[in-house]
Amino acid sequence: MNPSQLISNLNDKLAQTLALVASAQELQALYDAKVAFAGKQGFLSDIMREMGKLPKEDKPGFGKEVNRAKVAFEEAYVAREEELKNAALMDKVKKDAVDVSLPGPAMAAGAKHPIYLVMDEVVGILSRLGYTVRTGPQIEKDWYNFEALNIPPDHPSRDMQDTFYIDDDHVLRTHTSPIQIHTLLTEKPPFRALAPGSVFRKDSDISHSPNFHQIEGLLVDKHVSMADLKGTIAFVLKELFGSAVKVRFRPSFFPFTEPSAEFDCSCPICSAKGCRLCKQTGWIEIGGSGLVNPRVFEAVKIDPKQWQGFAFGFGIERMAMIKYGIDDIRLFAENDLRFLGQFNL
Ligand code: DAH
Questions:
Q1: pLDDT, mean of each 10-residue run, the chain (345 residues)
Q2: Residue 345: its pLDDT value, please?
Q3: Ligand 1 proximity of 290 Cβ (cutoff 6 Å)
C-alpha cells in the first residue's frame, strides 16, 4: 500500500471510530472502541506495522498522521468518557434524590408514664391544700427508714416490710416515710409536706412489685386532729375518683402514728356493688395514716407538747390500677408501648 492509501485508510477508520465514540451509550462500548482502535492488537498497531514497509522518506510524514489520529481519538475518548460518567452520576443522583415535599416518617411523641400521671394528679390536688413537694434518697440509713420512725431493731413491724439491705446500716427505702424524718430535721414547723417517690421491697406477684411508688403526706402545726386528717384524705380521694366515692377509716397500727388508721374508698369501678377489684366487698384499701407519734417528734428533737401533726401514705400503682382498671401491677414496669400509649389521650 502506498502512503496516501494508508493515510486515507487511517482517516476513514478514525472517522468511524470517532462516530462510535460519540454514539457510545455505555462505558463498555467506549472501551471496546478503544481496544479496537488503539489497543495492542488494534487498528493503530496494525497500521504501524504497515508503516515499517514504507520507503524511508515517507515514514516521518506518516508517523505524524498516526500521532494526529491517536491524539484526536484520545481527546474524543476522554471527553465522551467524562460525559458518560457524569450522566451515570446524574442518573444516580436523580434516583437517590430525596423528595423534600414528601411528609417524613411520623415520630412517636413521648408521653408520661401512667404512674407519673397519677403522681402528678395527686401532687396537684394536695398542692391546692398548701402542700409542697420534698424528696429524699432511695438508699437510706437504717435510722431514717426505721429507727427514727419508732421502728427499733428486732421490732416485729420490720417484718411488715421485707427489706433489701445494702449493708448493716443502709437499706433501699421500703417506704417514703423516711422523707418525713428528713423534713422534720431540716424545716421549722408549721409546714405541709408531700413526698412522692420510688420504694423497694422483696415482694413480687400480680399485686406486688419489688419497686413501686408511694406518696407521703405530713402536716405539722399547733392543733391537729384526726378530723383534719379525715377531711384531707376524703378531699384527695373524691378529687381523684369522683365526688360520689365514700371514704372510711379503720383503726390500725403503724409505729410512727398514734392513733393510726387505714383508709378505704368505696369501689369506683362497680360503685360499691361488688366486683373483682374490690373482691366483692365494695371497698378498696388505699393507704395508712394517723397522728404523728410523739416518739417521732422526740427522735428529731421537736417538742411534742408544742407541735402536733398527721401523716399519711399510699401506693401510687394501686391508685393507678383502680383509676385505669389495670389488674396486673407488673405491666407498669414492662415498658410495652402498646400498654403505655393508652394513658395520654
Ligand atoms: N409507710 C407506710 C407503708 O409503707 C404507709 C404509711 C402509713 C405512711 C401510715 C404514713 C402513715 O405516713 O401515717 O406501709
A1: 84 92 92 92 89 87 90 93 92 87 85 94 98 98 96 78 90 97 98 97 85 97 97 97 95 97 93 87 95 98 98 94 87 91 79
A2: 59
A3: yes
Identify whether 105 is part of a domain: no
Q: Give the residue, out of 175, 262, 291, with the most ligand 1 atoms within 8 A of its beta carbon, to mutate for a pocket test.
A: 175
Same domain for 12 and 131?
Answer: no
Distance (angstroms) between ligand 1 centre and the Cα of 282 equals: 23
Beta strands in the chain (DSSP E): 132-133, 139-141, 165-167, 170-172, 191-200, 211-221, 247-254, 257-266, 283-292, 308-315
Q: Is the domain of 49 the same as that of 119?
A: no
Same domain for 46 and 88, yes or no, is yes
Q: Are residues 259 and 324 in the same domain?
A: yes
Of 62, 96, 130, the one marking the end of a domain is 96
**Would you state the cell numbers that stand for residue 24, as one nine-digit string?**
457510545
Range of the structural domain that residue 334 is part of: 114-343
- Total domain count for the chain? 2
Question: What's the pTM?
Answer: 0.71
State the Cα–Cα distance between residues 241 and 65, nearest whole angstrom: 102
Note the pLDDT tens digit of each residue in 78-108. Answer: 999 999 999 999 999 988 888 888 888 888 7
The answer to whether position 277 is within a domain reads yes
User: Residue 285, exposed/middle/buried by CB under 10 A (0-12, 13-18, 19+)?
Assistant: middle
For the Cβ of 286 lying below 6 angstroms from any atom of ligand 1, the answer is no
Ligand 1 touching residue 197 (CB < 6 A): no
